[in-house]
Amino acid sequence: MATVHLPRSLVTLFGDEPPRLLEIEAATLADLIEQLDARWPGMRDRLCEPGPQLREHINVFVDGERERDLDTPLSGSAVVHVIPAVAGG
Amino acid sequence: MSTKTQLLVGTRKGAFILESDERRRDWQVLGPFCETWPIHHFVQAADGTLYAGGGNAWYGPSVWRSDDNGGTWSQSSKGMTYGEDEPKVTAIWNLTPADGILYAGVEPAGLFRSEDGGKTWAHTDGLREHPSRPEWQPGAGGLCLHSICPHPTDEKRLWVGISAVGTFETTDGGQTWETRNSGVRADFIPGPPPEFGQCVHNLRLDASRDASLFQQNHCGVYRTDDGGRTWAEITGGLPSQFGFPLTIHPFDPATIYVIPHNGPEQGRQMIDGHAAVWRSRDRGDSWQRLDDGLPTRNAYLTVLREAMATDRHDPAGVYFGTSTGQVFGSADEGNSWRLIADFLPSIWSVEVAQREG
Questions:
Q1: Does any domain span residue B95?
Q2: What burial letters (b/e) apply to A24-45, b meaning 16+ CB within 10 Å?
Q3: Does B166 map to a domain?
Q4: Residue B1 above 70 pLDDT?
Q5: Residue B173 sits in a domain of what CATH number?
Q6: Chain B residues within an 8 Å CB radius of A14
Q7: What's the start-to-end Cα distance of chain B, in Å?
Q8: Cβ contacts (< 8 Å) between B58 and chain A: which residues?
């Protein structure tokens, strides 16, 4: 099971608010996002552009490494952080 | 039963509701809503549902919906795409409910429609198939479709305004479109008047007539009575041709309001720091300055294209919001004004909702 950390700014967009920390069985990042979207419809559109590919300012780290490829495999003990880029004003 | 008057205010950092009663004297500020997302437009549909549209730099464009007057919200942009290899939709600029359909104008310019209250969206691809589309260029505000005017009785007829591109009309439900810019100046383009490229800032439909519209343009104020086939300039009598919003009186469509600004290269502000709304009682043939109660010194205010609206009381109320976070209101058709809210984020839109309660 991958351990997944979601940002506050993402979970508050959904009425049935997802937990910030959850565990999901997923083979790849694409699979993980698919499962998130199934549980919280619309979450894929917040994280991904059409393609799909990760939105430009959404960073995903797998075991501490920044990954952009949705085909990135996830090990059974993977730790995934979804982190919006730091910016604003 | 009393009638609540609500101003739906879209800002750079969230949506707000300003609430008052029929007297429209004391106002309560509610919000911010929509998780402080940038909200370009915030409207009420005929069934009372609230919709707010915008775009977030991280999470993309989305349309927010509340069925309980702002108590709870959901959001969706499902289907709001031009396709995998096409430009990405970045923000919603206009939401227009009409006959059970919700239209969304977006950046880069395009039109989407939803038939399920904003849950899913379908692209009206005929507009982006117009032969002029490869030559569309963004204006200072981006390449945005910011005005949507459905015909009051013919559901297949619709006009849209695109910044720095101009006005288009469809009569077949969006399959095909024609430019509607004849008679509108584009002083910033050398040579004879072009078929498109005119910088419409705000387009409004006079629903009391068959095909009458007004527009505040980069280069003047205009009126058409033939659906935009020919436009007549009605700038004469105004202190500037430049401004962003235009709105029409709710019961007397001969009465229209604009807010002249000093010019595109002069700061795009109220002229000489003197805040004023200008009203015409004769469809733009003559104009009157209205500034009673407005700051007339050192007020370098900007009012953006969707940030002026009227309510449906008698006498009608008129409201505008500024890019520096003030909302001014008049409960007597513009004759006198009061500051009704201050210190909001930069205001992009003001619309009116009325509720029984």
A1: yes
A2: bebeebbbbbebbbeebebbbb
A3: yes
A4: no
A5: 2.130.10.10
A6: 74
A7: 6
A8: 9, 55, 57-58, 84-85
Q: Is residue A89 assigned to a domain?
A: no
Contacts of A51 in chain B (CB under 8 A): 84
Residue A16 located in a structural domain: yes
| Region of B85 on the Ramachandran plot (φ > 0 left; ψ -120 to 50 alpha; else beta) | alpha
CATH number at residue A49: 3.10.20.30
- Give CA–CA dist B40/B91, Å, rounded: 8
pTM listed for this prediction: 0.96
**Is residue B29 one of the residues assigned to a domain?**
no
Structurally, chain B folds into a number of domains equal to 1
**The predicted structure's pLDDT at residue B354:** 85
Report pLDDT digits (tens) over B142-189: 899 999 999 999 999 999 999 999 999 999 999 999 999 999 999 999
Task: Quote the domain boundaries for residue B72.
Answer: 43-317
What confidence category does residue A77 fall into, taking pLDDT thresholds of 50, 70 and 90?
very high
Asked if pLDDT for residue A88 goes beyond 80, the answer is no
Q: In terms of CA atoms, which chain A residue is nearest residue B76?
A: A42
Q: Which of A13, A47, A49, A83 to mutate to test the interface with B (most CBs of B within 10 A)?
A: A13
Chain A: closest CA distance from residue B224 (Å): 40
Residue B345 DSSP class: S
Q: What is the ipTM of this complex?
A: 0.93
CA distance B39 to chain A (A): 14
Containing structural domain, residue A12: 2-84
Please give the tally of structural domains in chain A: 1
For residue range B235-291, what is the model confidence (pLDDT) as tens digits? Answer: 999 999 999 999 999 999 999 999 999 999 999 999 999 999 999 999 999 999 999
